[in-house]
Amino acid sequence: MKFDLHVHSCYSKDSNASLDDILEHAARNGLDGFAICDHDRIEGGFACSERAKELNSDLIVIPGVEVSSSKGHILVLGVRDAIEPGLSPEETIKRARQQGALVIIPHPFKITSHGIGYIEGLDADAIEVLNSRCVTNGPNNRAREAAGELGFPMVGGSDSHEAEMVGRSYTEIDADERTVEAVLDAIRKGKTAPGGGKTPVSFVVKQMFIGHLNKLGRRLGMR
């Protein structure tokens, strides 16, 4: 099955992608499912999962979150409760483990996007080695090399902030059943293969512009 394990919705501070648009483009782009990983918010994943049911969609929606740890971002999939931002990576992962969630280190060597900068010694389940929004190949190549050396399962995700880019990069997952738990279990077992390509630079620039506008709006009390 094909999953995009790194999708941002309108619940993220730097995305305006509606849940309906994400579901539409995920289906159009040939996905079996995806994970909503909004910045330090868990509501979007649960809302999207409920919306998929309302629309009778076959897509599997995994509730997740991209937590801002003290050293960089960490993806938590199968999240049930919010995890406080600003904790150390080790404490963030510990909080994820306490709720039985799965941990992925996203774009670890893309420092401009809050990559942690290392993976050795972290109690992670997988490493994102193909992030669509890496403009150059360096960060992805370095992540793939490090994950291979340390024996981590490798995954891909679009890191999409616009619905059109959902599935731009993805992970092939050999799961036994079409359920969230079966998919997460397959990732833990390393039954994964990253695939796909890059987000066009024009979309990356547009997303950055939207992010700046949203931040300005919040400062002015408009959002």
Your description of this structure?
It is a single chain. The chain is an alpha/beta fold and about 220 residues long. It has a single domain (about 1-220), classed as Metal-dependent hydrolases (TIM Barrel, Alpha-Beta Barrel), CATH 3.20.20.140. The chain has helices at about 20-30, 45-55, 90-100, 140-150, 180-190, 200-220; strands at about 1-5, 35-40, 60-70, 75, 100-105, 125-130, 155, 170-175, 190-195. It has a 9-stranded mixed beta sheet with strand order 7-6-5-4-3-2-1-8-9, with helices on both faces. A hairpin with a 4-residue loop joins β3 and β4 (about 75). The chain is globular and about 40 Å long. About 50% of the residues are buried. The model has no long low-confidence stretch (mean pLDDT about 95).
Q: Report the structural category.
A: alpha/beta
CATH class: Alpha Beta
Number of helices: 6
Specify the helix fraction band: 25-40%
Q: Work out the number of β strands.
A: 9
Rounded to the nearest angstrom, the distance between the terminal CA atoms is 37 Å
Question: What would the CATH topology be?
Answer: TIM Barrel
Topology:
Blueprint: E1 2-7, H1 19-28, E2 33-39, H2 43-54, E3 60-68, E4 73-77, H3 89-98, E5 102-105, E6 126-131, H4 138-150, E7 154-157, E8 169-173, H5 180-188, E9 192-196, H6 201-219
Parallel strand pairs: 1-2, 2-3, 5-6, 6-7
Antiparallel strand pairs: 1-8, 3-4, 4-5, 8-9
Short description:
Helix content is 33%, strand content 23%.
